[in-house]
TrEMBL record:
<keyword id="KW-0285">Flavoprotein</keyword>
<keyword id="KW-0560">Oxidoreductase</keyword>
<dbReference type="InterPro" id="IPR036188">
    <property type="entry name" value="FAD/NAD-bd_sf"/>
</dbReference>
<keyword id="KW-0274">FAD</keyword>
<keyword id="KW-0503">Monooxygenase</keyword>
<dbReference type="InterPro" id="IPR002938">
    <property type="entry name" value="FAD-bd"/>
</dbReference>
<feature type="domain" description="FAD-binding">
    <location>
        <begin position="2"/>
        <end position="345"/>
    </location>
</feature>
<dbReference type="GO" id="GO:0004497">
    <property type="term" value="F:monooxygenase activity"/>
</dbReference>
<protein>
    <submittedName>
        <fullName>FAD-dependent monooxygenase</fullName>
    </submittedName>
</protein>
<dbReference type="InterPro" id="IPR050493">
    <property type="entry name" value="FAD-dep_Monooxygenase_BioMet"/>
</dbReference>
<dbReference type="Pfam" id="PF01494">
    <property type="entry name" value="FAD_binding_3"/>
</dbReference>
Length: 445
């Protein structure tokens, strides 16, 4: 039996362990902390993420604890006006063959951890931080803190944004400071006034900032996450922040948004960071996964989904002997790099959508208001509708109510209908579009 070491016991690492072990491999899952646990608040899981969980055998359990979202609501955060909503009801679920749900990050982690504990092929090793690796012929020597080592047939680095495995494999230094701080708080739903309770993900867009909220924990809590472009000088994570400081940063938002922000009695802050996409995240018998491979801003709400997709593809490709592992890991890298780079670009470009000001905000609201439900579903189809996660350009499911139009032109951020494409032909890079900014296609380096 081949042995695969997975570095990192977060959502991506646990999913990778389950997927790889399903091919008959022994998996040793190394976590640096004394306990396997996950920090954070809410996670949005679009149908592509739910399909990945289906493949891992956990979607049913997730559905029992998740809140199905009825719609994505986009509000003008300054005027308080409703701009557009994308229904996630029967028509959306029929097209994308799964629901859009929100769940507490800790609850999803516990489900994955329980499944790993139930597997006789997965060994969990807490207090075992992976600090590096060495190639050893037809094996890899995994270096642990304290001078300990493990010898394995392969190593998967799922050790997150500050991955030690990536530092050795890619060597691209520290993450990029995006100049944005996000504040997070969770409020018991019984403290939320009835008129502010919505089974939706709601965005309040304002100049240089926005505020998103949605129910989690089976609807028992409300997750609040405002973010602002305040150019912090240093990167920090999970730092307590005084309530007045947060309120002051969002005082330009409308009364309804202010009422929601007033519900929070404590806040923690994170500086948003990412890294530029890279072309290669494998080296012989070593590969990266999730945030270690392609860390992205959370503005596309796809970080966890991409890690789950990675895990499914990795497991599918490792139906092989030890001798074939290096070649299969290279295939995994090739299968995933284009799609993850595309989502990475969408996350960065979304800043322009959420944080537009002045005439750009007016143009944004006008463009969004003009979109039909079919337009909105088309816009996310390439992302939410994917079920073949190894395809760089997966087939997009047609709207069950409207025949697909072969003249539709897909852009990086979604779809432009025939008229829209005509309006934008010849537009210079940097021109504003619904999905962000026109630019030459981003390629991993």
């Amino acid at each position: 039996m081949t042995t695969v070491v997975v570095a990192g016991g977060g959502i991506g690492g646990l999913a990778a362990a389950l997927s790889v072990s399903s091919q008959g491999h022994r998996v040793v899952l190394c976590e640096r902390n004394r306990e396997f646990a996950e920090l954070g608040a809410g996670i949005q899981l679009a149908p592509n993420g739910m399909h990945a969980l289906d493949r891992l055998g956990l979607a049913g359990a997730v559905r029992r604890i998740a809140v199905p979202v009825r719609e994505l609501r986009f509000m003008d955060g300054v005027s308080g006006e409703h701009v557009v909503s994308m229904s996630l009801g029967e028509r959306y679920r029929a097209r994308f063959r799964n629901a859009y749900v929100v769940v507490h990050r800790g609850e999803l982690h516990r489900l994955l951890l329980r499944a790993c504990k139930d597997s006789d092929r997965i060994e969990l090793r807490p207090s075992s931080e992976v600090v590096g690796y060495e190639h050893a012929g037809q094996a890899v020597r995994v270096l642990l803190s304290g001078g300990r080592t493990l010898t394995a047939d392969a190593l998967v680095g799922a050790d997150g944004l500050h991955s030690a495995v990536r530092a050795r494999l890619v060597g691209d230094g520290s993450p990029r400071n995006a100049g944005i701080t996000v504040y997070r708080s969770i409020v018991p739903m019984d403290r939320v006034p009835p008129d502010l309770r919505h089974r939706s993900v709601t965005w309040w867009a304002g100049p240089g900032r926005h505020f998103v909220h949605y129910p989690i924990a089976g609807g028992r809590s409300l997750n609040l996450a405002p973010s602002v472009e305040n150019r912090p000088a240093e990167i920090f994570s999970g730092v307590p922040v005084a309530v007045p400081e947060v309120r002051e940063q969002f005082d330009v938002l409308c009364d309804t948004a202010q009422r929601l922000l007033e519900l929070a009695t404590e806040w923690k802050a994170w500086v948003l960071v990412d890294r530029d996409p890279v072309d290669t995240w494998t080296e012989d018998r070593v590969a990266l996964l999730g945030d270690a491979a392609h860390p992205m801003l959370h503005y596309a709400a796809q970080g966890a989904c991409m890690a789950l997709e990675d895990a499914v593809v990795l497991g599918d490709l490792l139906d092989c002997t030890s001798a074939e592992l290096g070649a299969r890991l290279r295939r995994y890298n090739a299968a995933r790099r284009e799609r993850t780079a595309r989502v990475h670009r969408l996350a960065r470009d979304s800043i322009g959508l959420w944080h537009a000001a002045g005439t750009a905000a007016v143009a944004r609201d006008k463009a969004l208001t003009a979109m039909s439900l079919t337009d909105l579903h088309d816009h996310v189809a390439w992302l939410h509708g994917a079920r073949d996660f190894a395809a760089p350009d997966p087939a997009v499911p047609p709207d069950p109510a409207v025949p697909s139009d072969p003249a539709d032109t897909y852009t990086l951020a979604g779809v432009l209908d025939a008229a829209g494409a005509g309006d934008l032909r010849g537009a210079a890079p940097g021109a504003y579009t619904l999905g962000g900014y026109l630019a030459p296609p981003e390629r991993p380096r």
